[in-house]
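Notes from hallway chat w/ T.B., transcribed later so I don't forget. T.B. wanted the structure written out for a chain they're using in a teaching module, and asked if we could keep both sequence and structure tokens in one place. Agreed to drop them here.
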Amino acid sequence: MSFVWVGMGFLTFFAASTLAIDVGMFMTARSQAQNAADAGALAGATALAFNDFDDRSAGGPAVRSSITTAEANLVVGHTVSVQSGDVTFPLGPTGVNNRVMVNVFRTTNRSNPVATLIGPIFGVNTVDIGATATAEASPANAATCVKPFTVPDKWEEHSVPPNDTFDRYDNHGNLLPNPDIYYPPTDTAHYQGYTQADKGTVITLRAGTGNNIESSFYYSWKMPGDIGGSFYQDNIANCNPTIVSVPFDMTQEPGNMVGPTNEGVDLLKARDPNAEWDSVNERVDSEYNPSPRIFPIPLYDPDYYQYNMTHGRNASLKMVNWVPFFLEGRNGNEVYGRIVPMTGVIDPNAGPAPAGSLIYAIRLVQ
């Protein structure tokens, strides 16, 4: 009877060992597989936003980034199986095609199942492990590190001959013949703001003079927190952590800010002096991720500004969108750089993201 009980005890011991060792390993493998799927989905969504939003082919950056990133995350010391067909692009709940789903496998069908340790005693040599994750590149409705200067949003030019000035009202606030028209981001059917097609476009910013509204003229605005040239310069050279969502009413910074602007720009460039635009891959090469020289520039409503000015009201600026900007350098009072995508945040207390935003929030949704 003692031998019987000892034998039963050994069976119980083996069963407990299986639970303690193999099942624990299975749980670890499942967790690691989920990490691989999560990483692959996030990499794919990032590639959509920063490389090519329209290329969803097997050899495109979204699919390749998903596969290579998922494969870099080992599951119990071995690579997961991820094929191009395992990367799909499901529609979001609003019908927007901005999601990436990644499935990863360590299964018998893929010739890479997870081997058991104690299981072979009971005839279980391997188990199948898999995981799935979905991420999306959502247009952000808020941003941080916003700079204290703003340029007008794009408008529909009607002047004859065409010029680079927003002309809608005369000095008395009356509509001009063939007035220019500005469609705000809320008018998604007509909005003509910056889009993915503008990626890499060079733009030059110049200090605004008088009340002129030109696409390259910037006005200084007072950011939350303080006032004055020193605070203004610091907000350019560094990152103001205030989360700014649109629409946002801006007050112009009093005084001449050309000097603080130039000094702040020089200090900002010195923070990442070797960053440069890679024209072949259409991206910013930097030792930082992301480079501090990439930041959002607020876009103001030109109609709102000009209407208030011509009706005798205080010059006020209404932020309606952003254009993400890579600072390349400064030439005198002119700041030049390129339009590049960047990451932002989702503010649950703010409204929807502005149409055509090039600022994305990369996040897991499943």
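Follow-up for T.B.: The longest helix spans residues 2-50. Might be a good example for the class.
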